[in-house]
Amino acid sequence: MLAAARVPPEDIVWTPASGAEGDLFSGIAVAGVSMPPANRPVRASRAFLRLAERVILHRDDRRFALLYRLLWRLQDDPRLMEQAADSDVHRLTILAGQVGREIHKMRAFVRFRAVREDDGAERYVAWFEPDHHVVRANADFFVNRFASQRWSILTPDLCLHWDGAALAEAPGANRDDAPPDDAAEALWQRYYAAIFNPARLKVATMVKEMPRRYWKNLPEARLIPGLIAGAQAREAAMVALGGNTFPQTSPETLDEIAAGIAACRRCPIGCNGTRAVPGEGPARARLLIVGEQPGDQEEQAGRPFVGPAGQLLNMHLARAGIDRALLRITNAVKHFKFERRGRRRLHQNPTAGEIDRCRWWLDAERSITKPDIVLALGAGAGRAILGRTPSIGRERGLAGRLDDGSLLVPSFLLRLDGEGRRREENCFQQELVTLRHMLDESAPSACGHPPFRRSGRAGSYQGGKWLPGPDSNRRPSD
What we know:
The chain is of the alpha/beta class and 478 residues long. It has helices spanning 46-55, 63-74, 87-109, 139-145, 183-195, 203-209, 224-229, 231-242, 254-263, 296-301, 308-320, 352-369, 379-386, 392-395, 418-439, and strands at 12-15, 27-30, 112-116, 122-127, 150-154, 158-162, 167-171, 287-291, 328-331, 338-341, 344-347, 373-377, 400-401, 407-411, 459-462, 465-468.
């Protein structure tokens, strides 16, 4: 009406109501002018209306002035909402986001307690203190979710009561009107304490997702300070429960290794809730490829190298004429280390200590498979074999004997673009072709390994150090 009457924003004084939620206007005073007749149509974009529906639920007393000012400006600039840098549009977006988060928090942090009504029926009652006017906006969510139960949500502004058929509203209540703890909460607290994983504790992220102001109304929140304070000691106890030391005898079969890594809790990665990914391939394989750790898709599938990196490796193996079914593929670290970003799990590099802890399993796997050649993809894989982090830039493509007589070839494949990508892929492809030629050489020697006759790459790893042979400065393609 005001916009249609061409009343400018600076002539209006907005006074928000002080009553129950939903009484969002108590009066409008127009300063210095008489109300002219409404004589023009008012336009509003969908983007504005979508944000306005949220912002009007905010507790900021200046929200009405902001909304009207934007509506006034939209009459002359219909594309105003596309200007994200505009101060009014930016402010509107911030307020709408705050209301949206409060709607989500109410759905996430309302806790119901069972009480008996006068007729003997059971009703579930919850207390919630919203920052904004979101109770009525969430009514349909709770009706649809708990349609078959009687429930009440009490807040200082407005109360909702559902009897299984109709929704009723009532004035605001006090915290004392909500019921005390019920018997089920003790059981829930024991369960919450049991599943609390200290190895995955990130206090800043937890407080961001569950602000402290909600803690007093959540039964499990009373445990959080103590669980945080004792997280380090509990993590150590979990590691001790899994065993700080490995058995004195190594596993004798690959199935024993798979069962062992599934139960291993000797480092924080093993305690992060993901499942272990065992190696894949024949029990006797002339070529063993070792990656750093499984990724998101590998953890879900329980198989190594099935994600983007695995598809890239398969392509290069096929081009080099190497059948993946005839080789064995495994990882230095058997669990997926990640950082959660929303719904995504982003890869995190394992630490040197975590690689060293998991090295025992890789040594056991190598002793069973007895490969002729080990291809280490990356510095992490090299460390798991050598016990130190190799310089891939200097040692790449240089094959050296390990203590068990097998050949170790350090390599890697960087994910670059343009000319750099073609250069790296060509180098990696040439290394795989060289490996194929090495596997195709004459009959194995008496020790079970094929002769290595390329003096340009001859050398050995002794005590974890690379000792080059004669003419070791020659490249693999020489």
